[in-house]
């Protein structure tokens, strides 16, 4: 066999080796990108569900509080008037809210569950307020021929909620991108509460590898053998860095899911998980905790008199004040609206003294409105512990709610129920 033939054979083997290595590395890149996208999408869906559920709690609490307060004042309003007042408040909240990854909230009202033309009305839209009042049709097609409103309505009718995807023009941009949405029905008003975001707003900031980058990288391996070896090393390092970036991004998303964006307290989703864990600790290890529920006295009056911005300031001030009297292992959770849950570890602390301190320190605060007025606010607190009869967290919360009810009879006080 000639030297040329030997060299030719060696060259062919080298080329085949480079092709195989290139294909392997390309698959590694695809898998890494897929893993990143899958985790980001999962966390985004969790956050969207938490956001929608928080809005539903807010709407329901507002509707019931408004009805109760009107009845106390011997003022009669029919359900439609209360609904319109609720819509006005929620519209203001949605327009003023911002969310991670370019997400936003909108509300569609269903007027005909059979679908078709004018089956619903766009009541609220965080990005496109000019579309509010627009009639909706299940015959509407997106840029890829999908029927998003029909899919949404069918999912709501079947399960009361749905997570789905469709293609829509980006905000302030003519580009059409894939969008992920979570929607859930608030049945008393036939409102579908929705939140969504564009997938590329999640993937691109996190370092997603584009198809063109992969193609250039793949060709580089085929063309130059030596560069292929260098790039192979580079990809190993790049995957390590991407893993660290994924961990960091996961932690960021986890914090966003576990924290209330307005007050910095724990989210309701985080609170449910925490209380379930505490109940298991009580059952398995006989470790007890003090659980308290508080809300702000006459909070609606604060919003009505001084505006919702002042209401937000009051809630932020409340969280900041309470954290000063909690230890590192204690928690404050925004349960819904102006209602918060406090958790305290251990039984060696004087709970009556602690509740009195929190109550009095909150009442002593002075806040200043935009027009320079000085205001004070107070809180009422219901307190209890786990006991052997608790079958679930619901039993514990019910007992603490009863204690809160007794405290709110006088307001600016606390009531401990064993």
Keywords summarizing the entry:
418 residues, 11 helices, 5-stranded mixed beta sheet, 54% helix, alpha+beta
Q: What are the SSEs and their pairings?
A:
Blueprint: H1 3-72, H2 79-96, E1 104-110, E2 120-125, E3 135-136, H3 148-159, E4 161-169, E5 176-186, E6 191-198, H4 199-203, H5 211-223, H6 225-258, H7 268-285, E7 289-296, H8 299-306, H9 308-323, E8 331-336, E9 339-345, H10 351-364, E10 367-368, E11 374-375, E12 379-385, H11 393-410, E13 414-416
Parallel strand pairs: 12-13
Antiparallel strand pairs: 1-2, 1-6, 2-3, 4-5, 5-6, 7-9, 7-12, 8-9, 10-11
Structural write-up:
The protein has 418 residues and is of the alpha+beta class. 54% of the residues lie in helices and 19% in strands. It contains eleven helices and 13 strands. The chain has helices spanning 3-72, 79-96, 148-159, 199-203, 211-223, 225-258, 268-285, 299-306, 308-323, 351-364, 393-410, and strands at 104-110, 120-125, 135-136, 161-169, 176-186, 191-198, 289-296, 331-336, 339-345, 367-368, 374-375, 379-385, 414-416. A six-stranded antiparallel sheet has the order 3-2-1-6-5-4, sandwiched between helices. The longest helix has 70 residues, at 3-72.
Q: Name the overall outline.
A: globular
Based on secondary structure, the structural category is alpha+beta
Rg for CA atoms: 28 Å
Estimate the helix proportion, in percent.
40-55%
Total strands: the figure is: 13
**Helical stretch count?**
11
